[in-house]
Design goal:
Number of strands: 4
Strand content: 5-15%
Largest sheet: 2 strands, antiparallel
Distance between the termini: 48 Å
Number of domains: 2
Order of helices and strands: EEEHHEHHHH
Structural class: alpha+beta
Radius of gyration: 20 Å
Helix content: 25-40%
C-alpha cells in the first residue's frame, strides 16, 4: 500500500536559490527519498501520523470541506448513523478504516431467511 502525506512537507533544499524545490501536500504519495530523509526518519513520520497508508480525505484535500480530517470523519460518522451517506461515502469510510463494515439496513433485517424448524 502507498504511503500518503497527512502533513505539508518541503524538501529538496537548493543552496543557490536558498529555497526548497519540492512541496508535498496532504494526500500526495510520499517516500523517504521524496523528502530526502533516511528510512528511519521516515518510519518516525509514520509513527506520529504525518505519513499513513490511509487515504487522505479528498474533500479535505481539495478544500471543499473546510475543517480537519478528524472533524471530517466525525461528521461522516454522524451522517452514517443518521443514514444520510451515499454508497460511495460509506465505501470511503470503510476503506479509511473508520467504519469497519456496512451497518445492516432495514431490508437485510426483513429479508433474512427464516429459521428451520
Amino acid at each position: 500500500m502507498a504511503d500518503i502525506a497527512w502533513s505539508n512537507f518541503q524538501a529538496g533544499w537548493d543552496e543557490e536559490k536558498r529555497a526548497f524545490t519540492k512541496r508535498i501536500k496532504p494526500g500526495d504519495t510520499v517516500s523517504a527519498s521524496d523528502l530526502d530523509i533516511s528510512d528511519e526518519e521516515f518510519e518516525e513520520l509514520k509513527k506520529i501520523g504525518s505519513v499513513r497508508e490511509q487515504e487522505y480525505p479528498e474533500s479535505v484535500a481539495d478544500g471543499s470541506y473546510p475543517d480537519s480530517p478528524n472533524r471530517y470523519f466525525m461528521d461522516q460518522l454522524q451522517k452514517a448513523a443518521e443514514g444520510m451517506l451515499s454508497a460511495d461515502e460509506m465505501k470511503e469510510l470503510q476503506s479509511s478504516g473508520v467504519l469497519a463494515e456496512a451497518p445492516p439496513t432495514e431490508d437485510s433485517a426483513t429479508k433474512a431467511p427464516a429459521a428451520k424448524k
